[in-house]
Amino acid sequence: MGLDIQKSILVDVSANSQKDIFNLISHEAVDRGYAEDSNLLLEALNERENEGTTGMMDGFAIPHAKSNTVKAPALVIFKLTEGVEWNSMDGKKIDFVISLLIPEEEKGTTHLQLLSKVARLLMKEEVKNLLKEAKSDSEIDSILTKYIAK
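RESULT FIELD:
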């Protein structure tokens, strides 16, 4: 499985909190047609976060949601202008968000495959550095496509 799913990549996103980011993800998903109801998606993101932090290491977070409001698997990716508190595994602020949005009926297949691919990607120092240094959405898209397809 490559990365042939819908994705929205935004750089220079300004947010003050994890709550702001979840709201932005929910609205971006609805605006792009990935989901039908921003409130239901926001609820799903919060429910998952309450189970345990999605803040990884080195400024990356991978919030994810499985919900009936999601029409098809999608990624919403934000490169933030400044780090936000997230209760990350290493205690660092988050400045790069890769959000996975999965329809409820695909929770055991697509969700696990995609989450696994993104998590493995973020274990590669080279990839993390390239993503942090990227200046545009197309650059981030190229990096993800290149490394997730491996």
